[in-house]
């Protein structure tokens, strides 16, 4: 909370009569969430509560199909959204879908020539190590430009039959769970 207050103060916001505002305008957001991921509405409620303590008004809007809604509507500011990419096993899918101007999941509207050129470079690069290096550069650039702000990541719980699953390694990131060495006996 103290860090958030500091950032708000730095941005010129002041709490007046319990309401965070700048130039007399209250700070308020519409936050989308959906129930097909049971944890997301709960995360939205915690976010709303914490923001309320800061004097920020957050209206939660429940939607049904997030990809369709976010692509067709701009009546929202924030969203709880989970984009699981493990089945791909490569950063290219996520980066193209989320940050390329033509990406199907580019809900933030990212259209940055430098970022696009990095993604295009990744798309023609062969070799896991080279691709990983470029993907890391892209991730750092996206973080620096704050195209998305990730407020949390879930813990991964894993259960498997060691007699049947071969070469499983539990990773902090789902991205690294599926490997070319993972197999079933």
Topology:
Blueprint: H1 2-10, E1 14-16, E2 19-22, E3 25-26, E4 28-34, H2 39-53, E5 57-63, H3 66-72, E6 78-79, H4 91-99, H5 113-123, H6 128-145, E7 165-166, E8 183-184
Parallel strand pairs: 4-5, 4-6
Antiparallel strand pairs: 1-2, 2-3, 7-8
Helix pairs in contact: 4-5, 4-6, 5-6
Write a concise synopsis of the structure shown.
The chain is α/β, with parallel strands linked by helices and 185 residues long.
Q: What is the H level of CATH, i.e. the homologous superfamily of the largest domain?
A: Dipeptide-binding Protein, Domain 3
Secondary-structure arrangement, i.e. CATH architecture of the largest domain: Roll
Number of helices: 6
How would a textbook summarize the main sheet?
3 strands, antiparallel
The unreliable regions are none
Mean pLDDT: 90
Strand elements, count: 8
């Amino acid at each position: 909370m103290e860090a958030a207050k500091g950032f708000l103060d730095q941005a010129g916001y002041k709490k007046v009569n319990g309401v965070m505002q700048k130039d007399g305008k209250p700070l308020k957001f519409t936050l989308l969430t959906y129930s097909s991921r049971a944890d997301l509405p709960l995360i939205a409620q915690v976010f709303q509560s914490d923001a309320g303590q800061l004097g920020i008004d957050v209206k939660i809007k429940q939607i049904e199909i997030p990809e369709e809604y976010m692509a067709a509507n701009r009546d929202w500011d924030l969203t709880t959204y989970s984009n699981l990419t493990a089945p791909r096993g490569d950063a290219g899918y996520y980066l193209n879908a989320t940050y390329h101007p033509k990406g199907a999941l580019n809900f933030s509207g990212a259209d940055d020539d430098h970022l696009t050129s990095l993604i295009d470079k990744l798309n023609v690069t062969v070799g896991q190590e080279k691709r990983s290096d470029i993907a890391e550069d892209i991730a750092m650039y996206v973080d620096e430009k704050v195209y998305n702000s990730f407020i949390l990541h879930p813990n991964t719980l894993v259960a498997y039959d060691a007699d049947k699953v071969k070469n499983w390694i539990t990773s902090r990131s789902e991205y690294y769970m599926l490997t070319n060495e993972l197999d079933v006996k």
